[in-house]
Amino acid sequence: MKIYTKKGDKGQTQLIGKRVEKTNERVEAYGTVDELNSFIGVAVSLMKKTNFTDIQTELLTIQHELFDLGGDLANVTENKEWTLKEASITRLENKIDEYWEEAPPLKKFILPGGEPAASYLHVCRTVARRAERLTSAIHDEHDMPPAALPYLNRLSDFFFAASRAVNHRSGTEDILYERGKDVFN
Fold first, then answer.
1. CA gap 35, 41 in Å, rounded
2. Predicted model pTM
3. How do residues 104-146 score in pLDDT, each as one tens digit?
């Protein structure tokens, strides 16, 4: 079996249920979810220390959920059952709280950076925000999984908390935004 089909050579691709232009907003949304999944893979590959196994395990779970979400976003058939579930949001919230407690309290904004894995988790945070915006843009006009927007919203918070936990476990301080005033009390 060949990997190329030549079916997309004229700027179209197949959703689950119909053929659309590659510029279709659903294609943009699930493509961004796929991009996010790839950046998570980079972050995981940079976590060489054994004190990150819990974060690596969580990131693998998220990668599977993002694959599910991409399938949900690509599905335009009637009477579908969504793959991404509300339980994933609750699990993310628990992990956010857990990782947030590890790092010192914030009083100023921080810049993306620190350990390479933490830096990539910041990239994941920003790509998750873009995926959320793109999904939100199609949410009003199309049938969407109810968990999609809350999940993507929590996911960016998860990446922020996880990046801080990675830096803290590595003994690397977050990079403070120097020109800012105290913003958190």
1. 10
2. 0.91
3. 999 889 999 999 999 999 999 999 999 999 999 887 667 788 8
pLDDT averaged over every residue in the chain: 90
Catalogue all structural domains in the chain, each as residue range(s) with its CATH number: 17-75+82-176 (1.20.1200.10)
Burial of residue 139, with CB atoms counted within 10 A of its CB: 0-12 exposed, 13-18 middle, 19 or more buried = middle
Query: Which residues in the chain land under pLDDT 70?
Result: 140-141, 180-181, 183, 185
Distances in Å between the Cα of 136 and the Cα atoms of 23, 73, 148, 152 are: 17, 11, 9, 10
| DSSP class per residue in 55-90 | HHHHHHHHHHHHHHHHHHHHB--SS---SS-THHHH
Q: What are the structure tokens assigned to 82, written together?
A: 């969504």
The Cα angle at residue 88 between residues 87 and 91, in degrees rounded to 5: 90
Q: How far apart are the first and last CA of the chain?
A: 59
Phi then psi for residue 125, to 5 deg, are -60, -45
Q: Are 99 and 164 in contact (CB under 8 A)?
A: yes
d(CA 37, CA 159): 12
Burial class (CB in 10 A: 0-12, 13-18, 19+), 1: exposed
